[in-house]
Amino acid sequence: MAENIPNDAGGAAYGQGFTSSHRIHSVLTAGNVVTVAIQLFREKSDDYITTSLQSYLWLFLTGLGASFCAGIGSVIGQTIGLSNWTELGILSLLFTLPLLAFGRGRKTAIGGVLSQLVFNKLVSRSETKEDIQKRLFPRIWTFFRGEVLFWLALAGIYFVLAFILGLILRVFFSSIRDPDFFDFFTLSEQDFSSVLLTLITVIVLFLLLYIGLFLFFSYFIARLWLFDVVIAFENVSAREAIRRSWQLTQRQGWQSLSVVIICGLLLIPPFSMSMFLSIFSVFAILFIMIAAFPVYQAIKAVIYYDLRSRNEGLTFDLDITATNPQNHLRRVMLQTPESIELDLALGGIGSRTLAWAIDQLLLWVGICLFWYFGSILYLSILLPVLTNASAAFDQGELNQWIEAIATFLTFVLSNCYFIAFETLWQGQTPGKRIAKIRVVRDTGQPVGIKESSIRSLLNSIDVFFFFVGVILITVTQSEKRLGDLVAGTLVVQDQQQGANETQQLFDFSPISSQLATELVTNPQLKTITPDQFLTLRDFLGYRSQLVSRMRSQVTTKLADQIRTLLGQNNQPLALGLDDLELVEATYLACQQANQS
Fold this sequence. Notes:
The chain is mainly α. Strand 2 and strand 3 form a beta hairpin.
């Protein structure tokens, strides 16, 4: 029996008071993971920064204690007759390691506390910070072992990549003979042009190789960096936490990589600006580290929640009321010229950073290709033709003109990229489309060439003039950079995504349909709330997308909860029914009860 059920047919039909029409609300983009985490951090930033400060104080105090212990170790070493500095150093190190390890473990455990606080807000769980600390602080050494395994794994990957890069460089440089290197400076103009193009090609290939290795290494960081969150949430050993982090990110490895890249990019503006503070830069960097630590832990909590929700059905639980993470995005009410009000979610700093990074990558690839093929055209065709055409040809003057023209075309290309795409794609560039955001006017209408041109021309000021655009996006309620303020535009979430997914196709078995008619008469059926009804509805629509090992577990969990709600002794629940059929029947019974 197949049944088409509109996505909005659940909450309003079965009852009132439910705040979101979708329980599968945690399929977040990489940019929204960061944005939601930052918003959650802002809600209790004072408490989080205070907790972060405590973690760094522990590092400082254990460092002081380690220095004192190192002195004691040195004195003991001299007392027992050790005179070699190496031996004294090893003995001092043995005295300091326990305290240093405890300090690192304590800091990592406090990070777990911060992540747990954020995660509890997402699942509406009541647990005080003191209770979390009592639960996690006895496991400090587990956190420390997890961090050691994390860095050992990254060190192994780094050395493997360095070895591979070293082999490539050795093969390349061994193919270049010394006479070839010195002959490069005595080549004729035609041969020099050919060799120069070859050299440029080699440099570009090595840059691409380096970027590829960097992304490959960052990919492993993104797959393993949730180890501390796993230890805090799942009470597992350090080795199991590393394995679990790898398992969680198996389907969304590239999304996790995008989150890591966004985090790195967002640290560039504050660290760069701190360099201008002269002698106060050290204090500025320390403050940035203290403020960034809870933000990073919040990001880990949100991505953990997102991965478990989309892959393992974390929110498919009748006993919890999980909040929609996207409710934490800032929203804006716009009024169109037709007096229609639009409630839109703003793009957010995370999504905008991701879109900017992708656009810059594509733009600079295009610029490099323009210069590369332009150089081939000039050196291989245009220059030889002009040289042969006139003996009085001034190559130096032509080079200056070509450089000026190429620079001007580069400027035009870098601006036309944004202007053309935003105008033709209704406010989207390739980066914005991937990040699922778009630019609109303050009235909610699509942007035109005027607005796109203003935004593009002011983009350089927003980025390179003390990152004024990043600051404005962060501090203004409407998240407008300078280009948006002047052009009268907003960056919002792309709500056209999934607009056509208005129905879910449920295929119920005959047994489920028959059982539903019997469950309708159960008086306990009224105890199922609209929120729980939507949980059942969205589970049935999303079940096939869960990882296979969790599919049956979530089904069994929901079936057991239904038996508890409806009464274990009521027929036909006392029978050995299939769990999935019971879930389907309960959902159908709720619908039939409402229709009657």
